[in-house]
Amino acid sequence: MYLKQIDILGFKSFADKTQIVLSPGITAIVGPNGSGKSNIADALRWVLGEQSVRNLRGSKMEDVIFAGSELRKATNLCEVSITLDNTDHHLPVTFEEVTITRRAFRSGESEYWINRQPCRLKDIHELFMDTGLGREAYSIIGQGKIEEMLSTRPEDRRGPFEDAAGIVKFKHRRKEAERKLEETAANLVRVDDILAELEAQLGPLAEARRIAERYQALSDEIEETEIALLVVEIDRLHDRYEQLKRQVAREEAARNEAQERLRLSEEAWKARRQALNEATARLESLQQQYVEVVEARQKAEGSLALAEERLAALAQRAEDRRRRREELARDLAELEAAMEAVARAEAEAAAALGERQHLLADARQRADDARRLELADEIDRLSGELIDANHRAAALRNEWKTLEEKFQAGALRHERFEEEAARIEAERDRVEAGKQERAQRAEEIRRELDELERQLAALEAEREQAASDEAQAVSAWHRLQADVQGLSSRLELLRDLEAGYDGYAHGVRMVLQQARRGALKGVCGSVAELIRVDRTYELAVETALGGALQNVVVETEQDAMDAIRLLKARQGGRATFIPLDVVRSRRMEDGLVSRAAAEPGFLGLASDLVSFDERFRHAVEHLLGNVVIAQDLERASRIARTLNHRFRVVTLEGDVIAPGGLMTGGHVNRKGPGLLGRQREREDLENKLKALEAERARLSARQKELRARVVELGRERDRLEAERAVRLGHLKQFENEERQADFQLKTLAERMEALDWEREALAADRSQIERRKAEVRDLLAEAEDEVTQLTAAIAERRDRLAALESELAEAKERLTGLRIEVATLEQERENLAQRMAELRERKARLERVHAEMAKEEARDEAEAARLAAARESERAEALRLAEELDTLEQTLAAARQARHELEAEARELEEDVRRKRRAAEEQEATLQRALVAVERADADLSHALAKMGEQFGMTYEWAKERYPLQGTVAETERRLESLRRERASLGDVNLGAIEEHERLSERVRFLTEQRDDLVAARQQLEQLIDEIDQEMAERFMETFQQIRAEFGKAFHSLFQGGEADLVLTNPEDPLTTGIEVVAKPPGKKLQNLNLLSGGERALTAMALLFAILRVRPVPFCVLDEVEAALDEANVARFAHELRLLAADTQFIVITHRRGTMEEADALYGVTMPERGVSSLVSVRLSDEIDYETA
């Protein structure tokens, strides 16, 4: 066998999955310090089951899981697997290949696997036991651990020797045998103690068993007699039950007939209600349709009014446009007249200019004198300047006149524009105010509509809730009525039972009935009538009293004797009496009560848990003063032991522990209340009936109130819906008026926009005219000053030339005048041309305005045509909706009349249903009374049958067949009383003595057999331990001698001489002796191992290891830097020894030394390319790597 493969994942520094494939021989694992080489040895030790964290070089087991690095996160688990070649079946399994896996989680959990099958750590230890492998074996020598083979105490060196001797398994078997021997001895002592105690108990139980057996025989005979009497009573009750059942069948048929009549009436009523609901729904639908038609008509009328308003607005716009067109026509006519006048003036000025120019030419021809020419030149020059000045002045005057005319015309137009703007503003303010008023009113109506909607929703919810409440009240009333009938029937039954004293024995019933009639005096009543018990303790007290519930309490002893004589005289049966004048209390002592009260589950004495009249205290305490009530059977048992089984203890479930320890219990099948609960139930029923009657009256009143409320809410809903329809009509009207106002405001805004455009144009013209007038005024003043100056200069020149040209004065004056006239005419013609151009420009502007007005008129005409068509359509729709409203009003009236008629029919049918329901309820009550009688008979019969089953554990048929009555009923009752007296004379009987005596006898026999088995087992275990000790001693000594001889050879080989030996410290006890190592290196004296050098100690330890391996080779051996302290020569010898041993043992050597590497068959390198993460690389044997210096 050898190690084939190692798989490591997440173990210490091996974060990634690492696989090492191995072969027989020597495999060396090399690498720098800190690279994680030794983690491989730790992984092997860990997977073989190592549990010591210190041996794994850690502080806690979590340290073996990869803890993370700078670049990696920590892992949450680690896993190591080794695969062994087992073809030689060195391991005791059938597999030829065995894989051992160990997995650890950071949470602390561990898993072990053998060939991928989960297993226990113990399974792994047992698998490798005595193979030289495992956590305690010598197959893994960790770093620095080689010298520990020499440093430990002699006794601690036994481990490798025992493993080599193959006695580890024997030691384990011996330890198991010693543990079993200790357990056997302890069991034997315990069995002896139990046997002694049981044998002491057997004697007293024998007499108790004899009495119990007699008691059982009497009880069996009493039971048989009681069964025979009970069979007779059941026959009588069965006949009574069958007779009443036939009566119930008749009453049930009558009830079903009444219910069928009620069902038919209810169906008719429901049909009318359905028709009424449908009529109501149709009426609501018609009302909704009416509201929708009203809204539609109002919408059509609003649209009609809006169309008419918009048509009126378009007509107004057309009228405004007509006036503006007339104004434009007048302006155009004025412009054309002005243009004609200017044209005529321009023609006249041109003709005058031609004439003046001709005359001027003539005048010049006549004035050709040189002297005059000189003067003429000067005068001409001055005249020219004067003409220019006059020309400019005339032109400026004409321009001033023109500007003034334009300014005045603009002022008139500005006044007209301002009037138009004021009128538009006033109209807009009026429309805006009307719109705001309508919007405010519309908002008020919307709020009113919201409030109406809220009121309608709340009203509808309230009406639906009221209708639902009404239906629930009706349903609750019917359920309550059924409950009242059921409770009334039950109450009547209970009263009948009380009046007839049902459930009482015949004798007791006769006494109580005669006392009620006055035939007997001094009878207070039965015990069941005189006490009151809380429901919690009812079953317990009934069980405690048993038949005493029917005991009759009387005033005196004489009253009891009178009652007994009456029973005898009338053969009325028997009864037990409690005379108040002689009966005495029987109450448990206070000390015993205190002891019992200290126990958990103690509820009190039975006499303290019932209520009664004080004068009956002695009678009640006589019956219940010595009875303890407990919570349950377990606590009752402890209380009974505390009271030494002297008193009766009863649990709330009816279980009983009688004096002497007798226990009675089991399931109690109660179909109804007992005698104690009957009166309590009757009082409870009376109180419930009173409450139910009050609730029924309240529900009836509530039902009427809700019906009236539903009707009232329906009327209020109709009123609110009519008011909502009116409000919706007003809202539609105001919304139409708002839309009409918006259209008017839009039209006014368009008119104001056009007017603003003309006003802006006029303002620009007037501003330009104002600026030009100012300029002309200044220029005219300058021209007039220049004319004045020039005129003066010409006058002076004329005076100077007066003498010279007196004869030519007229000609000169004429020439000058002509020149001035020519200049004036030319300037006037230019002014007229400029005026004509201005007039043409103004005409073109007015024509553009006229064209825009024509387009606007075309658009308005199209809109007017569309509105006229829409108006006619809306008028026709409004007429149609008005006719539809008339039809709907007639339909609504008919629907309301139909609903009123259905409501009247539904009320009549509802009253008929009530009458038939009362009749059905009366018949149901009759049936219930018959059922009560049947139930009472059935209860009596069931009670008797239940008594047969519960008390005697058999069926009536079985009992009737096997227990026939022997003699008459009276004779059988006398025999029964005799048997009961004999049984009572036995006193307290321990019925468990029979079973207890048999149980103890059987147990003594069983324990005796067990004791014999334990003695035999102890002897066998002692013999087994002796055999194991002998086998281990022989094997140990044989192996020790072999290792001793091999140790000397290995020491001599490694040290090249010297001597070494192994010595037992106690040869007489091979199983505990220690082992001393004696070493004498070459050239040295024999000395203490502690005085050897480190290298010598290492070589000595290696010699011992090699000796063990020679005697008992292991499949593989891991050596972790064991040769670190050796020099090169010793390393070579160490490697040589490894090679010799490698024939039988596979070696995995973790080393730094070259000599060891050179001897290896395979070489693996461990590096840490990433800080904190080890990685395995293959290294060629030819590579020269100086690991020793690494």
Automatic annotation (TrEMBL):
Signal peptide: none
Organism, scientific name: Alicyclobacillus acidocaldarius subsp. acidocaldarius (strain ATCC 27009 / DSM 446 / BCRC 14685 / JCM 5260 / KCTC 1825 / NBRC 15652 / NCIMB 11725 / NRRL B-14509 / 104-IA)
Cell compartments where the protein resides: Cytoplasm
Family, similarity comment: Belongs to the SMC family.
Gene Ontology cellular component terms for the protein in this record: chromosome; cytoplasm
Domain named SMC hinge: residues: 521-640
Protein name listed in UniProt: Chromosome partition protein Smc
HAMAP family from the UniProt entry: Smc_prok
Function text: Required for chromosome condensation and partitioning.
Subunit structure, as described in the record: Homodimer.
Keywords noted in UniProt: ATP-binding, Coiled coil, Cytoplasm, DNA-binding, Nucleotide-binding
UniProt-recorded Gene Ontology molecular function terms: ATP binding; ATP hydrolysis activity; DNA binding
Domain characteristics, as noted in the entry: Contains large globular domains required for ATP hydrolysis at each terminus and a third globular domain forming a flexible hinge near the middle of the molecule. These domains are separated by coiled-coil structures.
Thylakoid among keywords: no
Positions annotated to bind ATP: 32-39
